[in-house]
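Q: Start with the shorter request: fold the first protein.
A: Done. Sequence, then structure:
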Amino acid sequence: MSFGSSKRPAFKPTPYGHTRQRRGIPRWLVLLISGIVLGAGGVVFLQRSYGPPRLTAEQSEQLRMDLNSANIEKQQLQTQAKQLRTEVEQARQALAEQTRTLDQLREDHTAMQSGVAELIAAIPPDPRGTSPGIRAADMIVRDNLLAYSALLIQDLPEGATEVPAFDGEVKLVAAGQYRSGQTVYVDIATLPLHMMRYTQVKGETELPKGFRARQVTIQITAAGADKIVSTRTIRVVAGK
C-alpha cells in the first residue's frame, strides 16, 4: 500500500493574514533632526566667530551702572533744559516789557521836545541878537560865593529842524570893588562849552577875599578862536 507524499505544502499568506517586520527610523525624521543640529551648530559658530563677545558678570554689572548713570544724567539734562526754557521765557517777557517802556519813553521824549521848543520860542531873545544867545541869567552872592546860572540857546537856521554842535568856552568876568573902593575886573570862572539847541551853565565859585562884585559879564568864545561870539552883563544880587 502506497501512501501519498509526506511533504507538507508551503505556507502562503492569504490576503487576510499579516506578518510582523522590524521598521527603521523614517528618513524624513533623520533629515529633520540633522537639520536642527546643523542649524544650531551654525548659529553657535556664527556667534562665536562674528557676533559680539559675551560679557562677563563684572562687565554686565559695569554696563548696568553706566546705564543708570546715563539715565540720571539724562534726567538732569532734562531738568536743566526745562529751567533754561523757563529763563528764556522770563527773559522774553522782560524784553517785551522793556520794549514797551522804551516806546513810552520815546513818546514822552518827543512830547518833551515839543514842549521845550514851545518854551524856547516863548523866551525873549538875546538883546544883542547873537547865537548862541544868552537868553537868561542869574548871579547871586551868598557868603562870599557866587552862584551863577545862564541859559544859552542857538537859533535854528531858516527851514532847519536841528542846529550844528557848538564847542567853545564860557568865561565869567566880575566887576566890583575892594574895601579900598577901587573898581576892578576879576576873572572868576572859565568853563568848557558843548551844546546843541540849548544848554544851561550853572555852578558856584568863590570870590576873592574882600572883593565885592557888582556885576558879572558872561563871554562866549568858539573853540580855536579868541573872538567873543556872545556877551551879556548881569547885575549881581545878594542872596538870603
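Q: Next, the second protein, separately.
A: Sequence, then structure:
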Amino acid sequence: MDMDGVLVHEELAVPGADRFLRALRETATPFLILTNNSIYTRRDLAARLRASGLEVPETSIWTSALATAAFLQDQRPGGSAFVIGESGLTTALHEVGYTMTERAPDYVVLGETRTYSFERITQAIRLILGGARFIATNPDPTGPTTRGPVPATGSFAALISRATSVEPYYVGKPNPLMMRSALNAIDAHSETTAMIGDRMDTDIVSGLEAGLETILVLTGVTQPDMIDRFPYRPLRTVPSVAELVDVVTGFAAAAAEPDPT
C-alpha cells in the first residue's frame, strides 16, 4: 500500500487506518508500505506513523530512496552521485557505498526535498550536460499537504529535462522494479496480492502493470471525477482503508477453513 493519502495526511492518520493495520496484524496478513517520498529514512517514517497513532515496523516500509540505492548498487557498485534530496536519499546511497560529489559524478540523483535550490538545480543541469546519468526517485508531479498540493520530484525532473534534453530514469512507482522488490520482500505472488493507493498515475498503474489487484482509496490525490480521465480503472474503489477491514478479516477466515477435499 501507499502511505501518504492512504494511511496519513501529513501528521494526521486517515480515520480507520489504525483499525485496518490492526486487522492486517491480527490476521497475520503480510503487508508492505511503499512510498515515493524519498525525504525520510525508514526509521523516520516509522516514528512519523507512530506519532500519528499507527504502529508499523521499519521492516514493513520500502521507499523510493531505498529502491534507487539498490538499483544504483546493482548498476554501478561503489559509484558516485550528485544528489538533490534529503536524509532518506543520502542515507540510502551512503549505506550501499555511494560517494556524494559535485565533481564528475556518475549520476545526478533527484529526489524529494522541502526546499528545491535553484543553485543546485542549475548545477545538476550542468553536470548532466557534462555527461552524468540522470536518475529520479519518482515521477510524482505533486505531493499532498494539509494546505493542498505542492510541486514534487516529477515537476523538477521535467524542468531539468527541458534544460538538458535528457529524460531521467524513474526508479519509484510505477516502475515494476519497485513492485517486484516489494513482492519479494513479503514473499508474495502477484496473483494473491493487492495494491492500495490514492493515485491513479502511480499506485494504480503500478499495480496493474505488476498483475496485482488494484484498490483506489479516495482519501488522497485522486477524486471520483478524475478516474474517467485515465485509460485504465482500479478493480475496486473505496472511500478509505477503513472500508477494507472486513475484507481482510473475511479473507483470513476463508483461508483458515479446512479444505473439504
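Q: Describe the second briefly.
A: The first helix runs from residue 17 to 26. Residues 16 and 243 are 8 Å apart (CA to CA).
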